[in-house]
Design brief:
The complex is a heterodimer of chains A (114) and B (112).
Chain A lengths: L2 E3 L3 E5 L4 E8 L6 E6 L6 E6 L3 E5 L2 E6 L4 E6 L8 E7 L12 E2 L3 E6 L1
Parallel strand pairs in A: 2-11
Antiparallel strand pairs in A: 1-3, 3-8, 4-5, 4-9, 6-7, 7-8, 9-10, 9-11
Chain B lengths: L4 E3 L2 E4 L5 E6 L6 E7 L5 E8 L2 E4 L8 E4 L6 E5 L8 E8 L6 E2 L3 E5 L1
Parallel strand pairs in B: 2-11
Antiparallel strand pairs in B: 1-3, 3-8, 4-5, 4-9, 5-6, 7-8, 9-10, 9-11
Classes of the chains: A mainly beta (114), B mainly beta (112).
Chain lengths: 114, 112
């Protein structure tokens, strides 16, 4: 079966750094995704990791360790607009295809305080 | 380049009626995915389609739900004889290759 775990809620203050962890157990692995979702809106793509290591994109970075089944999303210089749900999603192996379904965690609701 | 277009944005149906949700993928994308999101829960995969083909429907309920992606026109998710438990946000995503998917704004279905 597939299992993706992430904390339900986190809080932080403006200007701070926050790390959102995600652990996963899936039948094969073909990429890990992070999405941001504001209430009532569509998820928007943040990052994609398929190899071990850190991917940096502006204020957001994502790390992957395939041997540990672990990823984190790092948000720096937090802003009020970063208050949202952050979704971790894994794509299992699908006959070598780079396409196919994603399994999502329940999301981590981040609240940024002034 | 328009994104993934879903309509309607909000849909209200009485119990027993049919709901039809539409999704037009991004230009150049030929892979469409439907997900359902219940309040306080994550996105649950329903079905993956390419033009005129259902690739993976392992997340679709066995009864009342069907999906299609015809050669011409949008992908349709059809729910027959809706019940209150079908109330949810239904998101469509499209992809053209490796990397992330692009999601539409969703259809919020309310069954009264």
């Amino acid at each position: 079966g597939q299992n993706i775990d992430q904390p339900t809620e986190m809080t932080a203050t403006e200007g701070a750094i926050v790390q959102i962890n995600c652990t996963y157990q899936t039948s094969g692995f073909n990429g890990l995704f992070w999405y941001q979702q504001h209430a009532g809106e569509a998820p928007t793509f943040l990052s994609y990791n398929v190899l071990d290591g850190l991917e940096e994109k502006g204020r957001f970075s994502s790390f992957l360790s395939r041997s540990k089944g672990y990823s984190y999303l790092l948000l720096k210089e937090l802003q009020m607009k970063d208050s949202a749900s952050y979704l971790c999603a894994v794509r299992p192996t699908d006959r070598g295809s780079t396409l196919g379904r994603l399994y999502f965690g329940r999301g981590t609701q981040l609240t940024v305080w002034p | 380049n328009a994104g993934v277009m879903q309509n309607p944005r909000h849909l209200v149906r009485r119990r027993g009626q049919e709901a039809r949700l539409r999704c037009s993928p991004m230009k150049g994308h030929s892979h469409v995915y439907w997900y359902r999101q219940l309040p306080e829960e994550g996105l649950k995969f329903m079905v993956y389609l390419q033009k005129e083909n259902i690739i993976d429907e392992s997340g679709m309920p066995k009864e009342r739900f069907s999906a299609e992606f015809p050669k011409e026109g949008p992908s349709i998710l059809r729910i027959q004889q809706v019940v209150r438990g079908d109330s949810a946000a239904y998101f469509c995503a499209s992809s053209g290759g490796a990397g992330g998917y692009t999601f539409g704004s969703g259809t919020r279905l309310t069954v009264v």
